[in-house]
Design brief:
Order of helices and strands: EEEHEHEHEHEEEEHEH
Domain Electron transfer flavoprotein alpha/beta-subunit N-terminal: 23-211
CATH topology: Rossmann fold
Pfam families: ETF
CATH class: Alpha Beta
Bound molecules: adenosine monophosphate
Strand content: 25-35%
Distance between the termini: 58 Å
Family: Belongs to the ETF beta-subunit/FixA family.
Radius of gyration: 21 Å
Helix content: 25-40%
Number of domains: 1
CATH architecture: 3-Layer(aba) Sandwich
Number of strands: 11
CATH superfamily: HUPs
Number of helices: 6
Function: The electron transfer flavoprotein serves as a specific electron acceptor for other dehydrogenases. It transfers the electrons to the main respiratory chain via ETF-ubiquinone oxidoreductase (ETF dehydrogenase).
Protein name: Electron transfer flavoprotein subunit beta
């Protein structure tokens, strides 16, 4: 069984994001970039399926600037077999990414695509769902547990009220939640080995997709600064402040 794992290059989660002075977006120049954390979980899950003998090949795919090859290399060092970089130097919306992934699915014929539930840069939480819709495949989103057997995927989903378990006929789409697993660190020998694994480079046009954005970002702003807290001496004083200063009770 072949698995496809899309991995996105994003600003590292430890970096304090700064808004560009002209309000057109966030600063990415000279900022540490990494694989989207939910995609690391997706790669880890794919590698575990390979280790269990369920998956035979893992293909990591990234859509973005040439440097996104670094994130593919990270996936290869974690255990993916080969990579595909769809090079595009410009804004990418989930629909464009989903259309490109649909074309990659047509080319690679995977039985399962494991994506992150959302990319931590623009928090869209849309690509997996859009890809499922474009392909007409079943989807199990926000997976906290995944089992594959008898041509079916059983996905335990984290929903507001607790856990929901769904059964999907393969081929299918799964998106990862935080508690699915804890991704491994790539060992030095595996980082060295990953250098020799192949990465194919394509352009969106090679896949017949025009990735031009359909939305215009009007303005990006910093959230308002939080005001410093106040210490109170008693519950009575707290209630008094909530009632008379904050006027929330
Ligand atoms: P989003 O819908 O943008 O929040 O992203 C959800 C998931 O879609 C991510 O966790 C990735 O698995 C995948 N994805 C989104 N954008 C890209 C991209 N440019 N390249 C590869 N995968 C992507």
């Amino acid at each position: 069984m072949k698995l496809l794992v899309p991995v996105k290059r994003v600003v590292d989660y430890n970096v304090k994001v700064r808004v560009k002075s002209d309000g057109t977006g966030v600063e990415t120049a000279n900022v540490k970039m990494s694989m989207n954390p939910f995609d690391e979980i997706a790669v880890e899950e794919a590698v575990r399926l390979k280790e269990k003998g369920i998956a035979s090949e893992i293909v990591a795919v990234s859509i973005g600037v040439a440097a996104a090859a670094e994130q593919i290399r990270t996936a290869l060092a974690m255990g993916a077999d080969r990579g595909i970089l769809v090079e595009h130097d410009g804004a990418l919306e989930p629909l464009a990414v989903a259309k490109i992934l649909k074309a990659v699915v047509a080319k690679e014929q995977p039985q399962l695509v494991i994506l992150g539930k959302q990319a931590i840069d623009d928090d869209m939480n849309a690509t997996g769902q859009m890809l499922a819709a474009l392909l007409g495949w079943p989807q199990g989103t926000f997976a906290s547990r995944l089992e594959i057997a008898d041509g079916k995927a059983t996905v335990t989903r984290e929903v507001d009220g607790g856990l929901e378990t769904v059964e999907l006929r393969l081929p299918a789409i799964v998106t990862t939640d935080l508690r699915l697993n804890e991704p491994r660190y790539a060992s030095l020998p595996n980082i060295m080995k990953a250098r020799k694994k192949p990465i194919e480079t394509l352009k969106p046009a090679d896949l017949g997709v025009d990735p031009a954005p359909r939305l215009t970002v009007l303005k990006v702003e910093e959230p308002p600064k939080r005001q410093a807290g106040k210490k109170v001496a008693s519950v009575q004083e707290l209630v008094d402040k909530l009632r008379n200063e904050a006027k929330v009770i």
